Amino acid sequence: MIRAAEAMVKCLEAEGITTVYGYPGATICPFYDELYKAGSIHHVLVRHEANAGHEASGFARMTNRPAVCVTTSGPGATNILTAIATAYADSIPLVCITGQVSTDQIGCDVFQEVDITGAAEPFVKYSYLVKDASRIPRIFKEAFYIASTGRKGPVLIDVPVDVQNALIEFSYPDEIRMRTYKPAFKGNPLQIQRIREAVNKAEKPLLCVGGGVFLSGAEEKVRAFAKKASVPVVSTMMGLSIFPTDDPFYLGMIGMHGLNSANTAMNNCDTIIMVGARVGDRAVRSPTFLARNKTIIHIDIDSAEIGKNIPVDIPLVGDCTEILTELLEGEYTNDHASWLDDIREIKNKVSTNEMTEGYINPKVFIRKLSDSLPANTVCVADVGQNQIWTCNNFRFKEGSRFLTTGGMGTMGYSIPAAIGAKMADMSKEVVAVCGDGSFQMQLMELATIVQEDLPIKIIVMKNKRLGMVRELQTVNYGDRTIAVDIDNYPDLVQLANAYGIEADRVTTMAEAEEKIEKLVSSKKPYLLECNVYKLESTL
Amino acid sequence: MKITVSVLVENHAGVLSRISGLFARRGFNIDSLAVGATNDPTVSRMTIVADGDEHTAQQLEKQLNKLVDTIKVRSLTDEELIARELHLIKINAQPAQRGEILTICEVMGAKVIDMTPATMTVEISDSPEHIASFNALIEGYGIREVVSTGTIAIQKGSLTIK
Predict the structure, then answer these.
(1) CATH class as words, domain A189-348
(2) Tell me, what's the pLDDT at A347?
């Protein structure tokens, strides 16, 4: 017999977990005590529970396996809700463990009690409130299985403190079978054949790739398919960096903040093959309109996404990797030559950017930055103008990876996600791009960076505005700007220095290259503040 | 259009709130939801009647299927289903009216389960349409209280949902 809290640690060990992100409190102390005794799992102490979730998210996205975050009950648990919802919106596999008050006190409104499984219900893939300690091994096995299969997502395990202290027999199940949960992997062969024929028949086919491609690990397969079937490619925000920016087949990001070239291709094509993309409103504003006179092919692991937002001609449920493997076995005789000529013409129309004297042009800066960074860079963009500047201007190379929160648009994601990404693979260069608004929602994580000794590079686009909302107010609300000025403080260089992080500021384009060089060559954490004009536009 | 869906789910705590939460957040309008254990005590069966078009029906089925606790989802067409509801109805019934009300009950297949000098309480278990006809007949006497279950439905013939 062992303590259930020890069993929880053993479950994590059995799942190959080496790092957990968390913040302790009274009701999760038995688990922390067993973490201490086991010494096998590195616990990263964050500075706010939401960041435990985002750091686990960054880690999970790089490893494509569930990552673990831990908090105490009540406020600890509610603080991590935003991170759980963020992971849910982007289908990121997480296992979140929360402490809960003692079973006999549940429902009595005792200190730090909250119904967290109830609160999280709309945005978890599944949740458990553990009442029987002997079920812990099975629950953990199920949680990892559910989080990492089908359409991935966060799973919450809420464990009352007395349950953690109970004694149980421990044996970890080798495999799990659930009569209720059977994710589909293989695609229907008839539909696969129909897709092959549709691609050959199409005069102007277009491939639209989304975050599901990463979740399935199908990046190489989808690149090979585009090439083999001679189909040009656009990407959603979550699909950025599947294709290198300079790939001749590739046109960039679609959507309301996307590139003209990509949107033009979406409008002009006759067949769209959506792969792991859920046709979100920011990517496709009028799906029904778009679908007119086009053949829509939708490949997704979640059948509920197919037909939800856009009428579909050929639906195909299954795992992208499996389906693309099948598709690659087809014969593709149509080289779509004249369509590819059109595409090249669209792609060549690169917009020029005006420079504002005495400021950094963020778009040009991001291009220069990406050119100076190595191919194995992981770039994490936050939310707001900085995100769009990065999406549209960061030139991804083969081996680069882009991370952002596309679904929820959660400010304060970039630095914690960068921490998780860096810890998942220390050989990668990791750079976080944020604005001065979003930076201040996560600046406490500078302490975590120093504590964990992580050479992460941080770019802060400082325009002293909540720029995207400012722009919205200017355009849609008669320029009645309110609650968007964030003025000239704090001094970010001093602030970073106070945490022991080297920092610099860049105010003119003339010095940009030199400052970028300094940032890139630094072997330590580094923050660079970019002085951006307050009315700089998003696009 | 009316959509009737049978759902087999795990019979454990939290499942009903997951399902009702799903309806609320996806904006489905449900007319009724009835749930009870089946011959396998680990499985509950729900009958959900909702309002919506073809697209809603499809989404409803898919979203229900996506829930981890769901074992099976099956939409039932009006032609293939037998539907029942149970209503308990307290009617104003002075001694002079009892005879008429009893006749209506007898013809319509309702059963008197309680009586006071001024009221009668009847139960009727039948299709929603039949119960509506019954209600129309007794309305004139004055209905004091109605308690009803949601619709439950099963397929006609030997077919089963497992």
Answers:
(1) alpha beta
(2) 82
pLDDT tens for each residue of A230-283: 999 999 999 999 999 999 999 999 999 999 999 999 999 999 999 999 999 989
> What pLDDT sits at residue A353?
66
Beta-carbon separation of B68 and A117 below 8 A: no
* In the predicted structure, residue A350 carries a pLDDT above the cut 70: no
Nearest residue on chain B to A117, alpha-carbon basis: B14
Tell how strand A250-253 and strand A233-235 pair up.
parallel
Residues B90 and B68 in one domain: no
Interchain CB contact of A303 with B (< 8 Å) = yes
Q: How far apart are CA A295 and CA A314, in angstroms?
A: 8
Measured in angstroms, the CA of B153 and the nearest CA of chain A are apart by 22
Among partner residues A129, A181, A304, which is closest to B62 by beta-carbon distance?
A: A304
CATH number at residue B107: 3.30.70.1150
Question: Which of B76, B97, B128 is a domain's end point?
Answer: B76
What is the domain-level CATH number for residue B53? 3.30.70.260
In Å, how far are A127, A213, A293, A404, B61 from A216, measured between CA atoms?
23, 5, 30, 17, 25
Number of Cβ within 10 Å of residue B61's Cβ equals 18
Query: How do residues A359-368 score in pLDDT, each as one tens digit?
Result: 999 999 999 9
According to DSSP H, which parts of A71-208 are helical?
75-79, 81-89, 116-120, 136-148, 161-165, 189-201
Per-residue pLDDT reduced to its tens digit, B102-144 = 999 999 999 999 999 999 999 999 999 999 999 999 999 999 9
- A181/B14 CB distance under 8 A: no
Question: Which chain B residues are within 8 Å of A180, Cβ to Cβ?
Answer: 9-10, 68-71
- Residue B162 placed within a domain: no
Q: Looking at the structure, do residues B91 and B65 belong to the same domain, yes or no?
A: no
pLDDT (tens digit, 9 = 90+) per residue, A84-95? 999 999 999 999
- Total structural domains within chain B: 2
- pLDDT grade for A54, boundaries at 50, 70 and 90: very high
Nearest to B68 among A117, A146, A302 (CB): A146
Domain membership flag for residue B23: yes
Same domain, B24 and B89: no
- The answer to whether domain A362-531 has CATH 3.40.50.970 is yes
- The answer to whether the Cα torsion of A258, A263, A265, A266 is positive or negative is positive
- Class (C level, CATH) for A2-168: alpha beta
DSSP string, A380-401: EE-SSHHHHHHHHH--PPTT-E
Predicted ipTM of the assembly: 0.89
Domain range annotation of chain A: 2-168, 189-348, 362-531
Q: Tens digit of pLDDT for each residue in A70-88?
A: 999 999 999 999 999 999 9
Q: Cβ separation of A304 and B69 shorter than 8 Å?
A: no
Of A125, A146, A303, the CB nearest to B62: A303
Picking from B10, B58, B70, the nearest residue to A307 by CB comes out as: B58
Looking at residue B49, its amino acid is V
Interface check A180 vs B, CB under 8 A: yes
Tokens 């569930």 -> residue = A66
Residues B58 and B112 in one domain: no
Q: Which residues of A touch B42 (CB under 8 A)?
A: none
The residues, ordered by sequence, that sit 6+ positions from A292 with a Cβ below 8 Å of its Cβ are none
Bridge partners of residue B34, in order along the sequence: B47
Closest-CA distance, B75 to chain A, in angstroms, reads 15
Model-wide pTM > 0.90: yes
CB < 8 Å to B68, chain A: 125-126, 146, 178, 180-181
Per-residue pLDDT of B5-64, as tens digits, reads: 999 999 998 899 999 899 888 888 899 999 999 999 999 999 999 999 999 999 999 999
Residues of B in contact with A308 (CB under 8 A): 59, 62
- Say yes or no for a CB contact (<8 Å) between B59 and A178: no
Contact B17 A118 (CB under 8 A): yes
B14:A117 CB<8 A: yes
Predicted pLDDT at A352? 62
Domain that residue B130 falls in:
82-153
Domain boundary among B13, B42, B76: B76
